[in-house]
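Table 4 source record.
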Amino acid sequence: MRAPKWRVADLLQQLPGVTLDLAGHALTIGAGKIRLLTKDATLFSRYVVTQHGG
């Protein structure tokens, strides 16, 4: 997630553990990390960690 510097502390504190409903599928937000922005125009994730809820 990209966010302005002034929001980072609040987001790192408030978002972990929040569960979102995405088209009937639960997505729980984990602990965040601060990373510098890249100059790349496109961002992607090679891997996404999920837990199948049988």
